[in-house]
Amino acid sequence: MAKTWNAESLAMPSVARLSPYQPGRLSESGMIMLASNENPRGPSPAALEAAKQAATTLHRYPDGSASHLRALLAGQLEVAEDQLTFGNGSNDILDLIARVFLGPGRTAVFSEHAFAVYPIATQSAGGTAKVVAAKDYGHDLPAMAAATEDRAVNVVFVANPNNPTGHWLSQEAIENFLDAVPSRVIVVIDEAYFEYAESQADYASAMPLLARYPNLVITRSFSKFHGLAALRLGYAVSHPEVANLMNRVRHPFNVNAIAQAAAVASLQDDAYLKACVAENADQRERLATRFAALGSVTMPSAANFLCVHMGDATAANEWLLSHRIAVRPIANYGLPEWLRITIGTPEENEALLVALERWQ
Hints:
Largest sheet: 7 strands, mixed
Shape: globular
Helix content: 25-40%
Number of strands: 12
Strand content: 5-15%
């Protein structure tokens, strides 16, 4: 009789308890893709050209320090170059933070309805996740601050804007939160969608607060706004000592040469980026208005997606798929009656609305 063998029994218990991350539906020919919060306009033409040029030297290793990108980004953000850490997507950055600051006996705090990678990064590092109940589908910052009084807590994750709800925080709210959290706790402000949020009068990035709070880490992405999701590039801005620690566990050559070249070009194409912001804001308002006319509640959003109450979200999702439109069910985020819908091009949004009108 063959011996039974169970790989899960050999794994770290914290890993064995995990479920793999479930990405949005892959792109298919003829499918309208509104599931993964991608920029529907794609990358800047300048970024595409830079990527083509970088592809001519694929036999060479990339710049392991991302020197050109580092210098450009540091100048734009008005921070020192040694405050930057680059990763293979911002998920990689979140994982680096967990590997440095979490482990057995250590706890990370984050909100209900928060990004699914937070528990994955926490538990894969051997840490424990503490989920704080949401308030009005957003972060209950006072409750999260209170949770950090537990000396086992080493990290707290806060997304601004939050994915999947679109909820955002003012600088005053973040500042009050940072004042309330002990300096022994690393506060991660996930700003993956900040470019879209800057059109909101009461939104502000945490970037100006870095000099005052050495325990603050800001994470950002080139996947969403810059349209470089396939290339995987994210970064963190932090105190130099924190960046140094993350770079100790960062894998060599973790950001490929094409991603670096495309990011440098994209950061300098102001006209294209401003046009993307303007169209997103216009279409976000248009969709919210039309959804209201259909009797569907949408959560206020500062990002490039809307969280829409559909009642029977499973049936609505299946209906949309039958019309070749992919959106994101979010029952795994504790929101079984809602769909997260990426804001597409005007043409894509119209097709979505027509399909939902027929479903209604």
